[in-house]
Amino acid sequence: MNELALLVGATLSAGTPLAIAGMGLLVNERVGVLNLGAEGTMLVAAVSGFAVAFHTGNTALALAAGALAGAALAALFGWLVIWLNTNQYATGLAVSLFGAGFSAFVGIDYVGRQLVQHGAPSIPVLRDLPFLGPALFQQHPVVYLTMLLAPLTALFLYRTRAGLVLRSIGEAPDAAHALGYPVRRIRLAAVMVGGALCGVSGAYLSVVYTPLWVEGMVAGRGWIALALTVFATWRPARILLGAYLFGGATMLQFHLQAQGVQVASQFMTMLPYAATIVVLVLISRNAAWIRLNMPASLGKPFFPGS
């Protein structure tokens, strides 16, 4: 029972960066912008957050630095695709490649260095509960904030005027422009918010989840987060659920190895990525269902006055 509680706790922690990045990409795609640069953005934020944490010892400041780095890179991406009307797919891939190279270059001096550990955070009293204590109440505050992020995002999108405007731009930007809404500025703001969330996700990886810097440490999580938005049909609650499912698949390899199950480590390592491909294949079999849920202007350029 204790092993299961530890697996649940590890699943929540492993799913958190996927959930944060997925929420950010959801905001991007709801406004009609497809950002394939999540992987590179998370890498730049990861090295930025680690550097700040290494020199200051302040986790909150490191997460803020990650958010700032992610927002800055997203602003560059937004300027290219929203104002210069470059291809969103090609530009996103370029940002991802740039982020991988830039983070590797900047992070050379930090390879092999670790952050000072301050002990595992926990909630007094509740942490001593059987099963629930180690499963739910010995997590970093970011994990709980991520759980709160999903309902807050849903509340914003479906219960506020600003959320309605954002979704309307994702569905019909020409109509929103005709009504007087600054479509480009709103899209840029949404892209920067999404980039900031991807930045927090990357910084969480290098500062909290595995407090060290290794080149390429995001390890495909940006791509999984992109797949999550489709898997979740652009719904915040489903993104949270999907993130924990993929987090559980990631942690299952360590749990089985601890139990002495003889399974090739390479097979277990590829499990979350194989699961991503299987999910996307199953979803793609129903194209009409995807079109019904996908923002109508996703990936399409907008030309004011055209």
UniProtKB/TrEMBL annotation:
<feature type="transmembrane region" description="Helical">
    <location>
        <begin position="89"/>
        <end position="108"/>
    </location>
</feature>
<dbReference type="Pfam" id="PF02653">
    <property type="entry name" value="BPD_transp_2"/>
</dbReference>
<feature type="transmembrane region" description="Helical">
    <location>
        <begin position="33"/>
        <end position="54"/>
    </location>
</feature>
<dbReference type="GO" id="GO:0022857">
    <property type="term" value="F:transmembrane transporter activity"/>
</dbReference>
<feature type="transmembrane region" description="Helical">
    <location>
        <begin position="188"/>
        <end position="207"/>
    </location>
</feature>
<keyword id="KW-1133">Transmembrane helix</keyword>
<feature type="transmembrane region" description="Helical">
    <location>
        <begin position="239"/>
        <end position="258"/>
    </location>
</feature>
<keyword id="KW-1003">Cell membrane</keyword>
<feature type="transmembrane region" description="Helical">
    <location>
        <begin position="60"/>
        <end position="82"/>
    </location>
</feature>
<protein>
    <submittedName>
        <fullName>ABC transporter permease</fullName>
    </submittedName>
</protein>
<dbReference type="InterPro" id="IPR001851">
    <property type="entry name" value="ABC_transp_permease"/>
</dbReference>
<keyword id="KW-0812">Transmembrane</keyword>
<feature type="transmembrane region" description="Helical">
    <location>
        <begin position="141"/>
        <end position="158"/>
    </location>
</feature>
<keyword id="KW-0472">Membrane</keyword>
<feature type="transmembrane region" description="Helical">
    <location>
        <begin position="213"/>
        <end position="232"/>
    </location>
</feature>
<feature type="transmembrane region" description="Helical">
    <location>
        <begin position="270"/>
        <end position="290"/>
    </location>
</feature>
<dbReference type="GO" id="GO:0005886">
    <property type="term" value="C:plasma membrane"/>
</dbReference>
<feature type="transmembrane region" description="Helical">
    <location>
        <begin position="6"/>
        <end position="26"/>
    </location>
</feature>
